[in-house]
Specification:
With 282 residues, the chain is an alpha+beta fold. The chain is built from eleven helices and twelve strands.
Length: 282
């Protein structure tokens, strides 16, 4: 067994012996077990928490997002379920609140809030930057449209919807990492026009050169966040250099940011590039 399971059910079915259960598995919650060498990912925590509810709960928040395939979720976060049993359990956060039948779906036999309901919950229950980053990842994984997420806030009887709408208005499914979301939020808050994400750039023959993380086509400015993945292989590194040379040949100004950059350096460098390009845009 590689997935979380109910220990007593496995014993009753004769799938495992008590000795095997005791020596090869570890309890995550009462009567919920995983193999001793299991990596406790956000998905594993979510499934274990749902089993802890004996099927009565509904996975929500980051747990639902993980089950729906969103990336970048901290595996150390407590699992989140909507349940009538509010008893405190280590490693599980229990939410109360209204939930309609059409806001629940089943994934791998587990009851989970739908992607839209999950996005709304993230937007209304977490700090703005945390929420936008999480919804970016979920929207990308499930190909959600921002307008559909916004429409899902119209149900009556829900709390903190003004807060939710503020976060949803900043969401962009084009973000490929939390740092790209961070960079976009810094740019928008500084008063620059909202950039496009994953902007395709073509050469004079109509051949695709590549995509830039964030960009403004009218002024040909690109902003990119350089994570570790850009240096993972020689092939990727060489390809990135060729792409950069071609972007420059096409007249694009490419600003590359790393973990060493602060909000202040992002704004300063982008302001300088924007001021240089404004005559060409007018």
């Amino acid at each position: 067994m590689s997935e979380p399971f109910i220990g007593s059910a496995a014993l009753a079915a004769g799938t495992l012996s008590r000795h095997t259960l005791r020596t090869r598995y570890v309890a995550v919650h009462h009567d919920v077990y995983v193999p001793k060498d299991t990596e406790m990912t956000a998905v594993v925590r979510a499934k274990a928490a749902w089993l802890r509810t004996r099927g009565h709960g509904v996975l929500a928040g980051f747990s639902a997002s993980a089950v729906h395939g969103a990336r970048w979720i901290d595996p150390g976060r407590p699992a989140t379920v909507i349940d009538t049993n509010r008893r405190r359990t280590r490693g599980i956060e229990v939410w109360a609140g209204l939930i309609d039948d059409d806001e629940i779906c089943v994934v791998d036999g587990i009851r989970v809030t739908t992607p839209l309901r999950t996005a709304v919950d993230l937007a209304r229950r977490y700090p703005l930057d945390t929420a936008v980053t999480a919804i970016d990842a979920l929207a990308r994984a499930r190909r959600l449209r921002v307008e559909d997420i916004a429409a899902a806030t119209d149900r009556p009887g829900r709390h903190r919807m003004k807060r939710a709408r503020e976060a949803i208005a900043l969401v962009d499914p084009g973000a490929e990492s939390p740092k790209e979301t961070w960079l976009r939020l810094v740019i928008v808050r500084a008063g620059f026009p909202r950039p496009e994400t994953q902007v395709p750039v073509y050469n004079e023959y109509g051949v695709l050169i590549g995509e830039v993380d964030l960009g403004w086509r009218d002024v040909r400015i690109a902003a990119e966040y350089e994570g570790k993945h850009h240096r993972m292989s020689r092939t990727a590194f060489d390809k990135d250099i060729r792409r950069m040379d071609e972007l420059l040949e096409q007249g694009w100004a490419v600003l590359r940011f790393t973990a060493a950059d602060t909000e202040a350096t992002v704004i300063r460098r982008l302001s300088a590039a924007w001021n240089q390009r404004m005559p060409a845009a007018s």
